Amino acid sequence: FQQNLEPDAKTTGPNTQPCGTPQVILESEHLALILTFTPLSTQISVFLQPKPENAVTVAVSSRVLFRTEREQKVFEQKGVEEYLRYQIEHENEPFAPGPAFPFVKALEAVNIRLRELYPQSEELFDIVLVTYNHAHVGIRLINTINHHNLFIERFCMTGGSSPIGYLKAWQTNLYLSADAEKVREALAEGIAAATMFMTEKLTEVSQSQLRVAFDGDAVLFSDESERIFKTHGLDKFFEHEKENEDTLLDHGPLKGFLEALGKLQKKFYAKGQRLDCPIRTYLVTARSAASSGIRALKTLRAWGLEIDEAMFLAGAPKGPMLEKIRPHIYFDDQMFHVEGAAEMGTVAAHVPYGIAQKYNSQQKMSSGK
Amino acid sequence: MVSTVTNTDVKQKDVDQAVVVAVTFAAVFEPETEDGSSIYRLGVALPLVQVLQRVNERLLEKNPAEHQLFDVILITTESWQQQQNSSIINSTRHHGLEVGRFCFSTEEDYIESLMQNNVQLFLTTDGNEALQATQQGVPSALLDTNWVSCPSEQLRVLFCEKAIFQLNMGSTEASKKSAQNFLAHLGQMKQKFGVFDSPLCFTLVTSHGGKDNCCCALKSLRSLGVSVDEAYCLGGAPRGPILSLLRPHFLLSDGFSLLEG
């Protein structure tokens, strides 16, 4: 790695930490390079820690990265002191992977490919664990991260305070949490966010290609058309879309994240790897290809965003289509679709944005949930 | 010539069990008096002094016979301040601050004064003072004027690698030991409260190294009896934005060293 360190890089000598993991840390103005010499292997793991403003920062909470249902029960039934005691007692037992785990692994796979092509670049995914867990749980979480060989070197354990300030300080591009309230708070601050749920059935997803699927209205686009549909019905919706075919839709909460993915995709295209690109994006919308879908496509084009595959379902259920695509994550604003996707084994995340939320809760009430 | 004066307005703390914290005149007061009087105006460290008082109150609520309390000393570190001793005493009483003793010393002998009074933590807004005191074995912390003045119901202590900005601190074995003792006291005080509604909040911030570095720090603090509420592993990201959210009253970096040498 002798190459290309900044001329003003300061080196601290190799040193042994009290815990016996030797590390060499080199810092320069632009990046921090951490070399960890693991005692069990002869390999040196080298990774760049990008500055937050250059990276695509994905913040995940501990409850979606790992499975913590048992611990949640302890918290709910026995209170916080017992919960913390339980966590410390089980400190050396790693948690099992949660719904966001395959997604995070896929982000890391993309990073490996990016580093091969652009060794000096900081335009990478940076995964940050953001939890409002107490730092008592910290050692167990770090042990778990190590157990699963995840490259997460940044985290915030806020001990109960709202993580929103930290999300902004880390310039977070996407926040995934199990707590809908926190997700709503993040959305209100302009941070792309979605709620994830644990499903029992999980279809196998690609280890080498990150696949991200998006719903259109109220996810990539604003909820304006959805409003028309909900209040005036399908006919009015079609009428409105036809009339406004050439008017761009307003942007939705996840447009920025799609944009960030697009920027990384272009880095692969620039090196002639369009066919072999490890990032693939999908639009899965209830709009129809022949009519209302046109406005969606025109909007995307005007924004300069490419989406690899667009599925116009004209109202058909999304589950089967998603089962074919096998995305690592699918974003939708309607719980109905999120649940439908989950039933068929797709990891779906709910974006609690727009008019559909009023109907989500009404549905819940009427079905007596 | 150092002189120590007891503040008779304040009940004196137990010599053996109290945790002695010294705060400089310049931190507690503004250098000018209020118009037409000899009363000094309160400075940036007022919320800090108040929150130390608050911790004591909460400890006494739990146990009225509690002796492990903060014993706050006000210390002068310049000759002109030393000469203002009576105004300083009057100002302190006027504002009702819970300061147990006054140490009137100069730049020559303030460190000696700190040692004579068994000060376990020296708080100052002056970087040089903090550095010199640490080199002589008195654990010190530099108060950041940006955050120390935020009113709070909790004493917010932050553990990190670089609390005082110079890298080569020259911490001695003795100062490390004293720092560890202080940390143990803090840990014991905190243990008397539950997780919620505690008047003490401890945060760990590791700027360099990765998660294993942070893990070691958590274990190290735990072995001293200090349980940390919040932990931030920055992995090289700038510290500023996080610190401005955390608003600690002071930063400690000794006693649980992360990077040796």
From TrEMBL, chain A:
Location of the region described as Disordered in the Swiss-Prot/TrEMBL record: 1-21
Pfam families reported in the protein's UniProt record: 5-nucleotidase
GO molecular function: 5'-nucleotidase activity; magnesium ion binding; nucleotide binding
GO cellular component, one term: cytosol
A GO biological process held by the record: adenosine metabolic process
InterPro entries, per the entry: 5-nucleotidase
Superkingdom of origin: Eukaryota
Name of the protein in question: 5'-nucleotidase, cytosolic IAa
Source organism of this protein record: Poecilia latipinna (sailfin molly)
TrEMBL record, chain B:
PANTHER family the record matches: CYTOSOLIC 5'-NUCLEOTIDASE 1 FAMILY MEMBER, CYTOSOLIC 5'-NUCLEOTIDASE 1A
GO biological process, one term: nucleotide metabolic process
Molecular function (Gene Ontology), one example: magnesium ion binding
Designated name of the protein: Cytosolic 5'-nucleotidase 1A-like
GO CC entries: cytosol
